[in-house]
Structures are given as structure tokens and as C-alpha cells.
What we know:
By secondary structure, the chain is mainly alpha-helical.
Amino acid sequence: MFELLTNDREFADHNKALMDEWLATWVPRAISAARTLQPLWSQPDFKPPRFEDGLDRAKCRFSGILTQLGLGEPEGADTVTIDLKAPVRRARSSPTTPRLTGAGSP
């Protein structure tokens, strides 16, 4: 859907400028919110992937999406480069149910 806006013959430049403004506002907030969740990755009863590894994967995917749309990376995004030839995993169509861990878990 965003490709329609960034590739529009008449309004592509305006649309990209507007999206860049949104990204400059919201990406730093999203990164900050993600970092606030870091303690969840450090709980002793459950050993999921490291927080930084998960955040790096999300930032790589985000960077790839921005590149494909022809948008710049906003300040504070701390995004990293991505190989656009690498396959992109699509999100599931339905959310997964979280598993409880620790005392009282089935």
C-alpha cells in the first residue's frame, strides 16, 4: 500500500516528505518503547533469544522496508543495512497466544 504512495507520479515527493516527518517523530519513540521491554528478555525462568538480537532483526527489516519505499532513515532509528536480495519473512495472519512461564504455569 505504501508503494502506491511513494511511487505516485504526481504526489510521490509530497508523500515521501510527509512519511519522513512521521518517521522522524515515531521511530525514536518506537525504539525507546522497544528498549523499555528489554527486561522481559532477561527473566531467569525463560531463555528466549537475546533482546539485542531481536531488536537488530526488527531494525534490519524496517531498514529494508524504508529502502524499498525510497524513504530515508530517520534520526534516532539506529537502523542497520539489510541485503534486499535476502528473503523477507512475512508475519503470520493471526497473532500467536503467549505462553505463560514460571510458577502456576500448566
